[in-house]
Design brief:
It is a single chain. The protein has two helices and nine strands, in the order H-E-E-E-E-E-E-E-E-H-E. By secondary structure, the protein is of the alpha+beta class. It folds into two domains: 46 residues; 128 residues, Domain of unknown function DUF1214, C-terminal domain (Jelly Rolls). Strands 1-2-8-4-5 form a five-stranded antiparallel sheet.
């Protein structure tokens, strides 16, 4: 090889290495986004309508079979979401909304703070206009003592977490009832 050809070969190799180095992150990002898109399509094929269903996942990253999670996909841009259910006997129970980046919102309910009747039944509202934040008093929205403010993320997921339930089979037989409700 002559000395003149070596720099040309080095330039070609360096250029190709640069192209590969720049494309690898893009291709990696595209692969992750494609997988996320496919997972969303698969979930939407099973649960196509938001604000109407709670489902009980049975696997996932960090899944602990000793705990149970009801998942509600919500969209409060035009309506509030009403969730009715029973707080089961368990070590801990909570309702936490998450944004699209799976970050928890600042407002949630747990077994110590949710208002329920003597049988453990509750009614919770996901809303972007909670009564206390908008200056309304309890008389303005009678019966809406359990409101979760989702104004920081009007669309997202709500996890109903049941840690170490006394009777997991009973929890699985009693899904929460979810429905959109007109906003006052």
């Amino acid at each position: 090889m002559s000395r003149a050809k070596v720099p040309q070969i080095l330039r070609v190799v360096a250029f190709n290495a640069l192209v590969v180095a720049l494309l690898l992150p893009v291709l990696s990002f595209a692969a992750v986004e494609w997988a996320a898109h496919q997972a969303t399509l698969e979930r939407k094929s099973r649960f196509p309508i938001t604000n109407t269903v709670a489902w009980l996942p049975d696997e996932g990253p960090g899944f602990n079979p000793e705990n149970m999670y009801w998942v509600v996909e919500y969209d409060c841009r035009e309506t509030d979401v009403e969730i009715q259910g029973i707080v089961p006997p368990a070590k801990y129970w909570s309702m936490v909304p998450y944004d699209r980046y799976t970050m928890p919102l600042g407002c949630y309910l747990c077994d110590q703070t949710v208002q329920k009747d003597s049988t453990g039944r509750y009614v919770v509202y996901l809303t972007v206009r909670p009564a206390r934040a908008s200056g309304l008093n309890a008389e303005a929205r009678p019966g809406r003592t359990n409101e979760i403010d989702v104004s920081a993320s009007p669309r997202g997921l709500l996890l109903i977490r049941i840690l170490l339930p006394d009777d997991p089979e009973e929890v699985a037989r009693q899904p929460p009832f979810v429905r959109p409700v007109r906003r006052d």
